[in-house]
C-alpha cells in the first residue's frame, strides 16, 4: 500500500524518507483514517508481521490516543490472536463483537488507526473491508478466537493493572 491522502478506511505506509525524519529506519509505520457507522465494522487482515514488536492503536481525528487504560483501543503482538494460517484479523467496531482482536473506538465513528512494526524487513500486505455488523460472523475465519463478556472483563482488568504498574500508580 502507499500513502493515500483524504481516503477513509485505507491504510497507507509511511514512505522511507518520512521514516528517516521521524522514525526508525528498521521499522514500518502505517496509518489510516477509519470511518464506521453504528452498524458497521472495519476488518483489517494481514499476514503476521515479522517485526520484533508490532501493535495497533486507535486515535481521534487529531491523532490523540483513545483511552487505552480502561478500553481496548490498542492491541500489542502479545494480545493479538493469530489464526492457523498465520494471518491476523483485527476488527474496529462500535460494539464488542466477541472476538479477541477487537479494537474499541471508544464512541468515535471517525478517527485514525496505526500499525507500528519495529525491526522488520518488509511492509506486510494488508487488506481492509468495511462490512455490516450483521454480516461480520460470515466474514470471519472459522478459527477466529472468540471471547465472552467475562473474558473481556478479565482482559480489561489485566490491562488496567498493567498500566498502573507501568505508571507507578
Q: Can you lay out the helices and strands and say which pair or pack?
A:
Layout: E1 12-13, H1 16-22, E2 28-35, E3 40-47, E4 53-59, E5 74-76, E6 87-92, E7 102-103, E8 110-118, E9 126-132, H2 136-139, H3 149-167
Parallel strand pairs: 6-7
Antiparallel strand pairs: 1-2, 2-8, 3-6, 3-9, 4-5, 4-8
Low-confidence stretches: none
Discrete helix count:
3
The largest beta-sheet arranges its strands as: 1-2-8-4-5
**Per DSSP, what share of the residues sits in E-state strands of 2 or more residues?**
25-35%
Structure characterization notes:
By secondary structure, this protein is α+β, with helices and mostly antiparallel strands. The protein is 18% helix and 31% strand. The chain contains three helices and nine strands. The model has no long low-confidence stretch (mean pLDDT 88).
Based on the model shown, name its key terms.
9 strands, globular, alpha+beta, 18% helix, five-stranded antiparallel beta sheet, 169 residues, 31% strand
Summarize the structure.
This protein has 3 helices and 9 strands.
